[in-house]
Amino acid sequence: MIFLRSFNVVIVEDLIEHQNILQSVIKAMKKPKINPILKSDGLSAHSYIQSAYDIHLFIIDIKLPGLSGDELLRDIRTTERYMDTPIIILTSSSSAADKKRCEDFNVNNYIVKPINLNVDTLKPLQECILKYYNVWYKYG
């Protein structure tokens, strides 16, 4: 029997309603090893990231209180153990400038939140999570 640790996903989202929807998205995937870790602002995410050693995926809204998404991305990409960790941006911003800044931080996916945010409209997010989960499951 192979023991697999949890696939830890740090979700940085300031809106409680969106946090709940994101948890539902993960639950709907029916992958018991996916462990969502919710942070509601950039500062609490920064503190957690500096002390954690086992994060496999980040899902980040770039419009955050406290510490901006840009600053958080910079922190992640300059922390050696997370330089190559996949990052999915989930944001309401469709701005080309925001997308370009995220590309500069080597963000893996940039998803614009649909107006009607729910499990069904977030299928692209589920597909991204599953892609990274499968790689981790196979090689992790």
Please describe the topology of this protein.
Layout: E1 7-12, H1 16-28, E2 34-39, H2 42-51, E3 57-60, H3 69-78, E4 87-91, H4 96-104, E5 109-112, H5 123-139
Parallel strand pairs: 1-2, 1-3, 3-4, 4-5
Helix pairs in contact: 2-3
Explain what this protein looks like in three dimensions:
The chain is α/β, with parallel strands linked by helices and 140 residues long. The chain has one domain (7-139): 3-Layer(aba) Sandwich (Rossmann fold), CATH 3.40.50. Helix content is 42%, strand content 18%. It is built from five helices and five strands. It has helices spanning 16-28, 42-51, 69-78, 96-104, 123-139, and strands at residues 7-12, 34-39, 57-60, 87-91, 109-112. It has a five-stranded parallel sheet. Helix 2 (42-51) runs parallel beside helix 3. The chain is globular and about 35 Å long. It starts with 6 loop residues before the first strand and ends with a helix. The model has no long low-confidence stretch (mean pLDDT 92).
